[in-house]
Design brief:
Strand order of the largest sheet: 4-3-7-1-9-10-2-11
Number of helices: 13
Number of domains: 2
Order of helices and strands: HEHEHHHHEEEEHEEHHEHEEHHEEEEH
CATH architecture of the largest domain: 3-Layer(aba) Sandwich
Mean pLDDT: 91
Radius of gyration: 26 Å
Distance between the termini: 96 Å
Number of strands: 15
Length: about 475
């Protein structure tokens, strides 16, 4: 009797074990199947030409940028992101190659990327070679062509399966409107227009419609889409409805302290270039730039709405950035091409699905050259060449981390080079290896970089430390 009971007990236990084993096998099979069928992460890179941190999400309350702000709120906003060169072509060539400007060999707008680097694998090209559909829409690479009618139809054939840019396709209606030349012809690009018509009458609106179409058509495939928005780049033309966010007379100009230090000789390209501007021209310039920001923001909004509608957020990395900074009167300058904070720092907003740091801002230092290794990291790809940046994955998971020790930016003035390093507190700059000027700014006290401390004996040790840091980032500076 006892034996039968024992046998019955063992038989039932065996059945339970079989059931558990079967369940575990089924779960394992499902898990493997899920891993096998899991979609690769898409990439949507939005690059806005000449966009500085002139956005509400960066604390500029007077700027109307609700869509970029919406993206920033759900993503990670980088307060300290820096371009490696404050000009379109060198900056883009750098972050699209994962190399610094001197390594790429491009330090001006006049050198086409493929003339200098015919075989280098670019960021979108790497994704294309790994089975992604790649599309370039608007300005991603810099075409290095001054006349729109001479633009090639296929911007970068090694990088893109498809390319489209409507620059030069402004409609007849979009070419009319209120506006004026701010310099009487002295500065050909310094003009603005509150244009008649709507978004679709301007190249950026046409590009946006194509971007939405491409996104819709390729939503079910792994894709890398580079979407470049031309405005707020000069000439400052936008539909007049975007100017209405900025009533005439409401524009606030930069507050330039009277006791500021004398500028280093090469700190800006030309001390007298914008002297012809009165406060009236300055206010019109800034108002038109801000209208261009709002125009660009509206295009971003349409893309975000499409992301919602197509349910792409869970498997798409989204990057929104400027290509470098821009001056709006700071240091009496109204352009880019400087290694001041206004020229080097630019917006960087990153949405990374499932990253722990989403919805937060970070003060961690990052460089644009970090984008390539970051996307390679998350996509599980192998870098095709040695990269000069580092993945920001740790920061995207934990925004309280400090990031890298410093960011490096350079600019050339003919055969003279300005090299600058920015750490958490200080910016240190040398012109022609210090022969034509040295600058040191304390960002704890002087965020506008108006008071050069390099000649003050109290800061000699700081200068020494910062010079060592500078030379670590620019090995060629000693050659």
């Amino acid at each position: 009797m006892q034996t039968k009971t024992m046998l019955r007990f063992n038989f039932h236990s065996y059945k339970k074990l079989l059931c558990c084993a079967s369940l575990l096998m089924a779960l394992s099979t499902l898990a493997v199947a899920e891993l096998v069928t899991e979609k690769p992460l898409n990439v949507l890179m939005i690059v806005i030409d000449d966009l500085r941190t002139e956005l509400n999400c960066y604390g500029v309350d007077l700027v109307h940028s609700p869509n970029i702000d919406r993206l920033a709120q759900k993503s990670m906003l980088f307060n300290h992101a820096y371009a490696q060169y404050p000009v379109c072509n060198p900056s883009r060539s750098s972050f699209l190659s994962g190399l610094r400007p001197d390594e790429v060999g491009i330090t001006s707008n006049s050198l086409p990327f493929r003339r200098i680097q015919p075989d280098l694998v670019t960021l979108p090209q790497l994704f294309r070679e790994n089975g992604y559909f790649t599309a370039g829409l608007g300005k991603i690479f810099h075409l290095s062509v001054d006349h729109p009618e001479k633009r090639v139809l296929f911007e970068e054939p090694q990088s893109w399966d498809y390319f489209f840019d409507a620059l030069g396709q402004t409609t007849k209606l979009g070419r009319t409107g209120e506006g004026r030349d701010l310099s009487g012809g002295t500065i050909p690009w310094a003009n603005w227009k509150a244009a008649e018509g709507g978004d679709s009458d301007q190249p950026d609106g046409i590009n946006n419609a194509m971007a939405l179409r491409v996104l819709e058509d390729h939503k079910d495939k792994p894709f890398f889409i580079g979407y470049g928005i031309h405005k707020p780049h000069d000439p400052f033309i936008a539909p007049k409805k975007y100017f209405e966010h900025y009533p005439k007379g409401s524009t606030q100009l930069a507050d330039e302290p009277e006791d500021r230090s004398k500028r280093a000789k090469l700190a800006i390209p030309n001390d007298e270039f914008f002297e012809i501007f009165t406060d009236q021209e300055r206010m019109e310039f800034k108002r038109a730039y801000q209208a261009g920001v709002s125009f660009a923001d509206a295009q971003v909004g349409k893309i975000l709405d499409a992301m919602d509608r197509l349910e792409l957020w869970d498997n798409t990395i989204v990057i929104l950035m400027g290509d470098h900074g821009y001056h709006l009167g700071e240091h009496d300058w109204w352009n880019k091409v400087t290694v001041y904070e206004s020229g080097a720092r630019a917006p960087m907003i990153v949405w990374m699905p499932n990253a722990a740091g989403m919805g937060q801002a970070t003060n961690a230092i990052m460089e644009f050259v970090d984008l390539y290794p970051t996307l390679v990291d998350y996509a599980g790809l192998e870098a095709p060449h040695a990269l000069s940046g580092h993945s920001i994955r740790p920061i995207l998971e934990n925004p309280s981390l400090p990031g890298k020790a410093a960011a490096y930016t350079q600019v050339n003035r003919g055969n003279r080079v300005g090299r600058s390093v920015r750490n958490a507190r200080w910016r240190y700059t040398e012109w022609d290896n210090g022969k034509l000027g040295i600058e040191l700014y304390d960002h704890n006290k002087d965020t506008g970089e108006y008071y050069n401390l390099s000649a003050n004996p109290e800061y000699a040790d700081i200068c020494k430390v910062m010079k060592q840091l500078l030379d670590q980032g620019f090995v060629a500076s000693e050659q």
